[in-house]
Amino acid sequence: MLRGAALRVTRPRLAVLSAVHAHPHADTDTIIAAVRRDLPKVSHQAVYDSLHALTAAGLVRRIQPSGSVARYESRTGDNHHHLVCRSCGAIADVDCAVGEAPCLTASDDRGFSIDEAEVIYWGLCPDCSADRSP
Protein backbone atom coordinates (compact mmCIF):
# COMPACT_ATOMS: atom_id res chain seq x y z
CA MET A 1 0.00 0.00 0.00
CA LEU A 2 2.80 2.41 0.90
CA ARG A 3 4.71 1.80 -2.31
CA GLY A 4 1.50 2.08 -4.31
CA ALA A 5 1.02 5.54 -2.80
CA ALA A 6 4.64 6.50 -3.62
CA LEU A 7 5.63 6.51 0.05
CA ARG A 8 8.84 5.09 1.47
CA VAL A 9 8.26 1.96 3.48
CA THR A 10 9.40 2.59 7.06
CA ARG A 11 8.77 0.68 10.26
CA PRO A 12 6.83 3.58 11.86
CA ARG A 13 4.60 3.97 8.79
CA LEU A 14 3.91 0.23 8.68
CA ALA A 15 3.12 0.19 12.41
CA VAL A 16 0.85 3.25 12.19
CA LEU A 17 -1.01 1.87 9.18
CA SER A 18 -1.47 -1.43 11.00
CA ALA A 19 -2.71 0.36 14.14
CA VAL A 20 -5.26 2.40 12.18
CA HIS A 21 -6.55 -0.78 10.51
CA ALA A 22 -6.79 -2.54 13.88
CA HIS A 23 -8.43 0.37 15.72
CA PRO A 24 -11.04 2.12 13.55
CA HIS A 25 -11.77 5.73 14.58
CA ALA A 26 -8.83 5.73 17.02
CA ASP A 27 -7.37 8.94 18.39
CA THR A 28 -3.64 9.63 18.29
CA ASP A 29 -3.07 8.43 21.87
CA THR A 30 -4.61 5.05 21.03
CA ILE A 31 -2.55 4.81 17.84
CA ILE A 32 0.66 5.74 19.67
CA ALA A 33 -0.01 3.07 22.32
CA ALA A 34 -0.69 0.44 19.64
CA VAL A 35 2.43 1.38 17.67
CA ARG A 36 4.58 1.26 20.82
CA ARG A 37 3.59 -2.36 21.41
CA ASP A 38 5.57 -3.15 18.23
CA LEU A 39 8.07 -0.27 18.31
CA PRO A 40 8.56 0.71 21.98
CA LYS A 41 10.94 3.58 21.26
CA VAL A 42 8.95 5.30 18.50
CA SER A 43 8.47 9.02 19.17
CA HIS A 44 5.19 10.88 19.22
CA GLN A 45 6.52 12.98 16.34
CA ALA A 46 7.22 9.89 14.20
CA VAL A 47 3.61 8.76 14.70
CA TYR A 48 2.23 12.24 13.93
CA ASP A 49 4.46 12.48 10.83
CA SER A 50 3.32 9.04 9.68
CA LEU A 51 -0.36 9.91 10.20
CA HIS A 52 0.13 13.11 8.22
CA ALA A 53 1.88 11.29 5.34
CA LEU A 54 -0.68 8.47 5.27
CA THR A 55 -3.57 10.95 5.31
CA ALA A 56 -2.03 13.08 2.55
CA ALA A 57 -1.51 9.93 0.46
CA GLY A 58 -5.15 8.89 0.92
CA LEU A 59 -4.33 5.69 2.81
CA VAL A 60 -5.89 6.99 6.02
CA ARG A 61 -8.80 9.35 6.62
CA ARG A 62 -8.81 11.93 9.42
CA ILE A 63 -12.16 12.83 10.95
CA GLN A 64 -12.92 15.21 13.79
CA PRO A 65 -16.50 15.29 14.99
CA SER A 66 -17.41 18.49 16.83
CA GLY A 67 -16.10 18.45 20.39
CA SER A 68 -13.80 15.49 19.70
CA VAL A 69 -10.10 15.05 19.08
CA ALA A 70 -8.96 13.98 15.62
CA ARG A 71 -9.54 10.34 14.83
CA TYR A 72 -8.22 8.16 12.03
CA GLU A 73 -9.68 5.35 9.96
CA SER A 74 -8.53 3.13 7.14
CA ARG A 75 -11.80 3.24 5.20
CA THR A 76 -11.10 5.82 2.49
CA GLY A 77 -12.34 6.85 -0.92
CA ASP A 78 -16.00 5.91 -0.56
CA ASN A 79 -17.37 9.11 1.02
CA HIS A 80 -19.08 7.22 3.84
CA HIS A 81 -20.44 9.05 6.87
CA HIS A 82 -20.45 8.56 10.64
CA LEU A 83 -22.78 8.01 13.56
CA VAL A 84 -21.58 9.56 16.84
CA CYS A 85 -23.03 8.82 20.28
CA ARG A 86 -23.64 12.01 22.27
CA SER A 87 -23.17 10.13 25.52
CA CYS A 88 -20.14 7.81 25.23
CA GLY A 89 -18.57 9.17 22.02
CA ALA A 90 -18.72 5.85 20.13
CA ILE A 91 -18.31 6.29 16.37
CA ALA A 92 -19.65 3.97 13.67
CA ASP A 93 -19.48 4.08 9.88
CA VAL A 94 -22.64 4.47 7.84
CA ASP A 95 -22.95 4.34 4.06
CA CYS A 96 -24.77 7.01 2.05
CA ALA A 97 -28.53 6.48 2.20
CA VAL A 98 -29.05 6.08 -1.54
CA GLY A 99 -26.72 4.96 -4.29
CA GLU A 100 -23.12 6.06 -4.70
CA ALA A 101 -22.29 9.30 -2.86
CA PRO A 102 -25.58 11.11 -3.65
CA CYS A 103 -24.67 13.80 -1.14
CA LEU A 104 -22.09 15.18 -3.57
CA THR A 105 -24.83 16.93 -5.49
CA ALA A 106 -25.43 20.15 -3.60
CA SER A 107 -28.59 22.17 -4.14
CA ASP A 108 -26.31 25.10 -5.08
CA ASP A 109 -22.59 24.37 -5.55
CA ARG A 110 -21.79 28.12 -5.91
CA GLY A 111 -19.19 27.21 -8.53
CA PHE A 112 -17.28 24.76 -6.32
CA SER A 113 -16.07 21.45 -7.71
CA ILE A 114 -17.30 19.17 -4.91
CA ASP A 115 -15.38 15.94 -4.27
CA GLU A 116 -16.40 15.08 -0.71
CA ALA A 117 -19.24 15.65 1.73
CA GLU A 118 -19.02 15.19 5.47
CA VAL A 119 -22.20 14.09 7.21
CA ILE A 120 -22.28 13.24 10.89
CA TYR A 121 -25.38 11.77 12.47
CA TRP A 122 -25.66 12.43 16.22
CA GLY A 123 -27.67 10.44 18.74
CA LEU A 124 -27.33 7.68 21.30
CA CYS A 125 -25.74 4.30 20.61
CA PRO A 126 -27.74 1.18 21.53
CA ASP A 127 -25.91 0.74 24.87
CA CYS A 128 -26.45 4.34 25.97
CA SER A 129 -30.09 4.23 24.80
CA ALA A 130 -30.64 1.09 26.91
CA ASP A 131 -29.03 2.75 29.94
CA ARG A 132 -31.52 5.63 29.71
CA SER A 133 -34.59 3.39 29.39
CA PRO A 134 -36.73 3.06 32.53
Q: What is the element layout, followed by pairings?
A:
Blueprint: H1 11-22, E1 26-27, H2 28-38, H3 44-56, E2 61-63, E3 71-73, E4 81-85, E5 91-94, E6 120-123, H4 126-132
Parallel strand pairs: 4-6
Antiparallel strand pairs: 1-3, 2-3, 4-5
Feature tags:
134 residues; alpha+beta
Compact overview of the structure:
By secondary structure, the chain is of the alpha+beta class.
Write up this protein:
With 134 residues, the protein is an alpha+beta fold. 32% of the residues lie in helices and 16% in strands. The chain has 4 helices and 6 strands. The protein has helices spanning 11-22, 28-38, 44-56, 126-132; strands at 26-27, 61-63, 71-73, 81-85, 91-94, 120-123. The strands form 2 sheets. The chain has a 3-stranded antiparallel beta sheet with strand order 1-3-2. Strand 2 and strand 3 form a beta hairpin. The longest helix has 13 residues, at 44-56. The termini are far apart. The mean pLDDT is 90.
Poorly predicted segments: none
Lateral strand order in the biggest sheet: 1-3-2
* Binned strand content: 15-25%
Largest sheet: 3 strands, antiparallel
Helix and strand content put the structural class at: alpha+beta
What is the helix content? 25-40%
Radius of gyration over all CA atoms, rounded: 17 Å
Overall shape: flat
Q: Gap between N and C termini, in Å? A: 49 Å
**What number is the mean pLDDT?**
90
Number of separate strands: 6
- Provide the succession of SSEs: HEHHEEEEEH
Total number of helices = 4
